[in-house]
Amino acid sequence: MSETLGAASLLQLIWLASPALPIGGFSYSEGLEAGVDRAGVATESMACDWLLEQLPLSLARGDLAVAAQAIPAWRDHDADRVRELNDWVLHTRETAEQRLQTEQMGRSLLDWLRNHDTVAPPLLDTAAQMPPTYPLMFALAVSATDATVRDGLLAMAFGWAENMVQAALKSVPLGQSAGQRILARLARAIPAAVDHAMALDDRQRQAFSPMLAILSAQHETQYSRLFRS
After folding, report:
1. Which residues have a Cβ under 8 Å from the Cβ of 103 and sit 6 or more positions away?
2. Domain boundaries in the chain?
3. pLDDT over 70 for what percent of the chain?
4. Is domain 32-219 annotated with CATH 3.40.109.30?
């Protein structure tokens, strides 16, 4: 974390990373619930391994890499670049469930930002003119702080980790102590994932996790679901 990050910006990042942020992140398991049902994710170690693989293979190569490029684009008021990155997110969602998640959370985060005075109105107008996705709206929120790009991505990744651990607690199911052990391992892995995301350019960024996409599609018709599809 940047040594020069001000208190207000630090608190804003903590707020954005909180699972209590009312944008619906807790409603999705991102394939984990289907993994429990169809891929035999039944123990703490299996759930931990699942998330430790998902972090670099899915989150870092896709949404974190997009956010890394979107934060400076928002700060530069580069609307064309923002729309290009937002379109990439929409076009790379491999299932209806994944697209629902990024659009619903993006809209909810934009609504949340409208109720605060951190983001300039012209930027909110730009966001409202497109189907806002979650990575682009998180980047918009970060762009209004003094945080570095890396600071913002660390917050985004930790927020993802907390939501996914909560999904594991409910769907495997696991106890709170197991959840904290998983979160500790994810926290240790997040800095490297963020550094990798920041090193990717447009040609290297990708959203290709075929088994995760298959499980997400199967989750849409899974019997007895806890999480949204």
Report:
1. 90, 131, 132, 133
2. 32-219
3. 98
4. no
